[in-house]
User: Fold GT2 family glycosyltransferase from Arcticibacter pallidicorallinus.
Amino acid sequence: MEEHLLMQILNLPSPAGFRANYILICDNPQVKVPPAIQSLADEGSIRLLVNEVNKGPSYTRNRGIEEGNSQWILFLDDDIVPSRDLLSAYSMAIESHPESLGFVGVTEFPEPFNDVTNALDLNGAVGFFKMSRFKKEQAWAPTANLMLNRSLLGDRRFREELTLGGEDVELLTRNSQDNGKRYLSLPDAVVCHPWWNEGKSQVRRMFRYGYGNATILQLPHIRTYSCLDFSTTIETLFGLVLLTPFMLIGGIHFGTVLTFFVIVLAAELITNAARSITVSQKVSPALIWQMMLHKNAQEFGFFWALLRQRRFSSMCRMIDFSFRKAHPSPFRLNRWKIVKLIVTAVLLLLLL
Assistant:
């Protein structure tokens, strides 16, 4: 618990006609509660709950939902810095749209300051956090700064088995589809989120994101918004590994087989290098490496979940996270997919 951050949240002014009840839940039984936080809990200004064992984000959020009884539930990460008028922005939205499914605020990140944070920004890892600046409504959003209407949420809860990620996408899209509504964007409700771990590598986080996405892909309300896609690099390499014995038995020279692997890896490197240079407007081997590393960590997490769960039929599939249209068209192209296809074709012509 960071006292100076939490106090900024707990000291937010309540709008006229509204009462804010704070429930602070810590998912760490060994936590040392800061004196100021403990004092607020002792005097009854906040409800402080500590899980007896580490239960994960889904259980913790569900506990918060069950402990409260207000009509509107505001989720905030404990490490954000809120704007002073955050609650006012939400209260005005409630008054204007009392039947809304919920509201999504803007979660800003500081300017990238090193290769890791630049890679996360350029790869789009933080794009969904600030989507409210660009879209009027959304099917889901990260729970760092999000409000739900309790009556429309009903008895739906976060799936507690989703311990590695995907729980926010799963619940919020399910809630949206069941109600036939989307969450309204609220660009005036702004918080600032620090870079995770002070800008250190987020390979594990990206792996968890991929793992969680693959796990929820099997759920009907998610799979309906998925489609076949070109294989990722890790999926292509896995396919080549499976095909290698058959290629060798069929008389293909080992050097040729090895060349296939080299082409796949080279195409990934060249495409990421081109993308890094194009979007950052600079040549930085370190940035190229971080962009490729974090992108492939997420793709490997997706692949590893499918492999562990023996869901091979879900490989070469992607989720359309906009959730705009059921059964989206397969094999959708973008600039960088086209570049990778061209690079792969050129390498095949040159090396084989």
